[in-house]
Specification:
Chain lengths: 277, 277
């Protein structure tokens, strides 16, 4: 299972504009509380609240129970904690629900005004749309595609380290997809830009919703040619690893390398490659 | 080759903020002209202009030549034509360049104001960023991921027809990816919502930049269970096809079915499936 995927809710999108239907479900709804992207926790568990207000975001149905989310700074029932810190404490299905709500709220926070005319916009569709009362433009949540790829040459893979990362932390390369390119083309551009590598063949592995704030990660393997030279802008360092070296890094046994975060798809790519022989 | 992919330009993103470098290249640059997303054509060829102004969008390098794009209503040098009408007349590499420029200009047209505070924003990075002079928020072009999938059951595939389409026109199912879901999950949700089908296994096939206005299409195959019943909202009709029926539709020989547009990835999926035996 890939962290932040596996949301078990039925989004029931057809009901998002059905105010009467939603009204019936609010009183008995379960409510996830977030503040600035941080879920409300009680110890190491989500602090679910009972009963949703009119402005709650509708996340979907859990069987007969409607599930909502609210942005609030009321921490009486627990403590707001960073999602990165609790992603692996939560059951996978709850982490995925939190991820969806976090992305939506962070989109709302940055999109209160109409990009088309500058007027303040209004929330519609139980939180899934904003509409401009002045120019009538409709605005939908952003989902920003990102490619993350493990360059492969012979029996080695290449990892990179960004300037801001702690010494020893290394991960596959990554970058945003731009308008007018496929993910395969974005992958080829990024490995060339960041490490001077020529992409020969790109293979899709898996995708992952990534709620920081609203990316969609495309995990790829890419056969490359070239030595691999860090660009000195994004990447400070690159390193070719054998499967044995990567395995010891993943197991926490490598003398000077730290693996990618356990909830990141970079770790999934690396683990998959290590397990092939 | 997938239409709108295969842009041959080196985007040279590292130079987008290098005003001196750009200034040297404008006078000898080649310039693509668009008006409201329509490229300027002379007959069936792009009407390239010479020399770029200071506000031209920098698309990248074609060898030693810098390539730019401008939004203009000046049609002295040709005629503005719909991209859908000329996509297959243009060489593939030029169609891909037009697609990138079209997506960017349509993003600019709808994003002149800051979604964070409502203030008018300013173009930066040779057209690849807008910045708010009031709140300093940076805004990047949208790329909206869409899943398009061919449902398969046994030796048949399912196509759907939307209400707005002409009678007989059928295509794979499609929908926008929402925050908090992988493409595999978006695919499963869409086939359930639109046709009442349960997804069993999703396979990635290819991606395609889709400049109407700025989508990124993910072409998928999905093994499904269920009969397939159109939702009556998006889809008016669904139909299971054998490979022979799909082949005759693709060849234009089917008595009452019309294939998807030739430049759409739906056609690529269908052709790939037909060619498997």
């Amino acid at each position: 299972m890939i962290t932040f995927s596996g949301n078990p809710l039925d989004r029931t999108a057809a009901r998002r504009d059905d105010e009467a239907w939603l009204a019936e479900r609010r009183a008995n709804g379960r409510v996830l509380a977030l503040h600035e992207g941080k879920p409300l926790m009680r110890g190491d568990e989500l602090a679910w609240l009972d009963g949703a207000g009119n402005n709650a975001l509708f996340l979907g149905m859990d069987g007969e129970t409607a599930v909502f989310a609210v942005e609030t700074d009321d921490a009486r029932d627990g403590e707001f904690r960073e999602l990165r810190a609790v992603a692996l404490l939560l059951p996978a299905d709850e982490a995925a629900i939190v991820a969806a709500a976090k992305s939506l709220f962070e989109w709302h926070a940055r999109h209160r005004f109409c990009s088309n005319c500058g007027h303040a916009t209004t929330v519609f569709s139980a939180g899934w749309k904003r509409v401009c009362p002045s120019c009538a433009a409709e605005h939908f949540p952003r989902v920003d595609p990102v490619v993350i790829m493990l360059p492969l040459r012979g029996d080695r893979c290449l990892l990179g380290r960004q300037f801001a990362w702690p010494k020893g932390r290394m991960a596959p390369l990554a970058g945003f997809v731009e308008p007018g390119e496929s993910i395969e083309e974005a992958c080829a551009r990024e490995v060339q830009e960041e490490a001077g590598l020529s992409a020969r063949h790109v293979t899709y592995h898996a995708s992952q919703p990534w709620p920081f704030p609203s990316s969609l990660m495309f995990g790829l393997f890419v056969e490359v040619e070239g030595e691999g030279i860090p660009d000195g802008v994004e990447l400070e360092e690159v390193r070719w690893l054998t499967r044995d070296e990567a395995r010891s890094m993943l197991d926490g046994r490598h003398p000077d390398l730290l693996a990618p975060n356990r909830y990141a798809i970079g770790q999934v790519l690396l683990t998959h490659w290590v397990e092939q022989t």
